[in-house]
Each structure stands twice: as C-alpha cells, then as structure tokens.
Amino acid sequence: MEFTKGERRQLWELAGLVYEAEAHQLLEELEFEFKRWRDGEILSSELLGAIHEFHQHESRELWSVYQALREPEIVARGLALGFMAESSVPPES
Predict the structure, then answer these.
(1) Rounded-to-integer distance, Cα 28 and Cα 81, Å
(2) Which of 14, 24, 26, 47 qualifies as a cystine partner to 37, CB 3.0-4.6 A?
(3) pTM (2 decimals)?
C-alpha cells in the first residue's frame, strides 16, 4: 500500500508514540527495582544486576522488535497491545 507524505508522517509519529509507551512500561518494571534499592530492600550490587539484566534482555528485545517492523506494523502492534486507541489512528482517505 502506498501512503502519502502526510500519512507517512502520521504513521511515523504514531509509531514513535507506541515505542515510547512500550518502553515506558518496561522502564516502570525496572523502576520497581530502583524503589526496592532506595527502600533498602536490595543492595546496590543487586540493582546493578537488575540493570544489566534489563539491558541484556528486555531492552535489546524491544529494540530488535522495533527495528524489524515498519511504521504501519508498529501502529498495528500498538493497537493490539493496547498502547493506543483505535480512535487515535486517522481514517483512510
């Protein structure tokens, strides 16, 4: 399917929002480990281990997924995963 320049721009912007929403969700999980560290529940070394694991797994997996997808697929992913409402996608011209 061919998209106009304006549609491609909209898809690019929406894809960016989807990526940010998914990244935010993953970082919230990591933030929990920071909270545990601040509350004295885990050692600094344990927090560093959690950061390392995050970088080696969740962060890389997210990056890989988004590198393999084009903007229309990312928007579809965002819809399927509930990161965006269908109403945020402009109707076809």
Answers:
(1) 17
(2) 47
(3) 0.84
CB atoms within 10 A of CB 52: 10
Which parts of the chain sit beneath pLDDT 70?
Answer: 92-93
Q: Compute the distance between CA of residue 79 and CA of residue 65 in angstroms, rounded to an integer.
A: 15
Residue 40: predicted pLDDT = 98
* Coil, strand or helix at 42: coil
Least Cα distance to 81 among 15, 11, 28 occurs for: 15
Tokens for 33, please give them. Answer: 């480990």
First-to-last alpha carbon distance for the chain, in angstroms, is: 13
Question: Using CA atoms, how far apart are residues 55 and 51, in angstroms rounded to an integer?
Answer: 6
Which secondary-structure segment (H or E) carries 3?
none
Q: What is the DSSP string of 30-45?
A: HHHHHHHHHTTSS-HH
